[in-house]
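Exercise 7. Given the encoded structure of a 383-residue chain, write a plausible sequence.
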């Protein structure tokens, strides 16, 4: 069972955070974030630091995209030195995932990227991960998201090994933030491209969870409602940037979409190939989904085209292919729609195809992917 206790919405983030801190008795609160948010004079990070007042004992704002191990270790070291008893992540998926992994480092006093290796899950070398054993008073986290990536709802941390350029997973039930605070105001300083592209990442959660072989009557309504909310709200965010209701709809959409995955519906090739594009080629999380999801839907259509009609219906056009509708949504919100647009070269494709087969979501794709040649077919569609 997950250990997430509360999801708060409808309250200003600073007020909601102080109420959580009071309830939990924390006295030394450490904040994690990014350099881009730290550079703002009056952004979400500054608002949270101001709200904390004397409870604030430090901030680590050097977490890079795709959560490199080095940043996890550096952040854990800073939190340890500050004697933090609660960590608050302010940012998107990379910040949240890095903070989850920082918890592990604090629980086990890990002080180097190599020291994290035994705890890695999803291993392909036959070794069983070393179990994490949090102390009785294990430090936990609260998340205040500024994007729509939905990392704050899961107990998994995606962390990049900078030496191999592979995205790797670390997981523990206590990684999941105790509390998530959804405040659309916290997204106002997020660049439009980042906000809406991470929204497509959540569309990816909705679509691939619905198409998953492990989807079931408990997960399907979550996937479809998440897709409905996101398909409606993402264009509204672009057309009406000050519309907080649209932004909150997007936050509800990402919550619904990821809930299907948490409940047992898996992901597929769009996620798996996206891990390669992100960790190996520096493509932002959201853009990997913008580029890959339409291509994967089109490749899968010969196998699950009938099932995809429910996705099309959720987007208001039941008679049109879901892959086309997602591609049009990506275009409408001004995001890249092919591999060339995110800097991938044709000569990169064979390596991407080989590396993709090492990721479980590719092997779990609803239409069976037998090897790199099948991945190459998907990449050609996305090219």
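Solution.
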């Amino acid at each position: 069972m997950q250990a997430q206790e509360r999801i708060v919405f409808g309250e200003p983030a600073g007020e909601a955070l102080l109420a959580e801190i009071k309830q939990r008795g924390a006295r030394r609160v450490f904040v994690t974030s990014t350099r881009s948010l730290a550079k703002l004079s009056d952004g979400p990070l500054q608002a949270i630091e101001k709200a904390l007042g004397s409870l604030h004992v430090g901030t680590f704002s050097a977490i890079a995209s795709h959560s490199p191990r080095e940043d996890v270790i550096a952040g854990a070291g800073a939190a340890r030195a500050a004697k933090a008893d609660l960590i608050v992540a302010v940012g998107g998926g990379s910040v949240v995932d890095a903070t989850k992994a920082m918890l592990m480092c604090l629980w086990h006093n890990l002080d180097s990227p190599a020291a994290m290796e035994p705890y890695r899950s999803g291993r392909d070398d036959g070794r069983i991960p070393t179990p994490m054993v949090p102390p009785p008073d294990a430090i936990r986290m609260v998340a205040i998201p500024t994007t729509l990536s939905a990392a704050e709802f899961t107990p998994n941390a995606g962390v990049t090994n900078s030496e191999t350029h592979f995205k790797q997973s670390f997981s523990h039930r206590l990684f999941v933030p105790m509390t998530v605070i959804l405040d659309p105001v916290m997204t106002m300083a997020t660049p439009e491209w980042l906000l809406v592209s991470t929204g497509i990442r959540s569309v990816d959660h909705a679509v691939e969870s619905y198409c998953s072989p492990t989807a079931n009557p408990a997960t399907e309504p979550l996937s479809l409602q998440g897709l409905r909310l996101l398909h409606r709200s993402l264009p509204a965010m672009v057309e009406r940037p000050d519309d907080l209701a649209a932004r909150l709809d997007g936050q509800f959409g990402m919550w619904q979409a990821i809930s299907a995955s948490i409940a047992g519906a898996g992901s597929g090739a769009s996620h798996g190939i996206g891990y390669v594009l992100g960790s190996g080629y520096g493509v932002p999380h959201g853009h990997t989904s913008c580029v890959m999801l339409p291509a994967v839907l089109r490749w899968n259509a010969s196998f699950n085209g009938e099932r995809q009609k429910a996705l099309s219906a959720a987007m208001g056009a039941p008679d049109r292919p879901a892959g086309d509708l997602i591609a049009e949504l990506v275009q409408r919100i001004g995001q890249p729609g092919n591999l060339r647009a995110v800097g991938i070269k044709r000569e990169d494709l064979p390596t991407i195809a080989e590396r993709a087969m090492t990721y479980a979501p590719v092997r779990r794709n609803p239409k069976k992917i037998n090897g790199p040649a099948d991945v190459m077919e998907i990449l050609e569609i996305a090219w």
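Remark. The domain at 6-186 is CATH 3.40.50.1970 (Rossmann fold). Students should compare their own answers with the one above.
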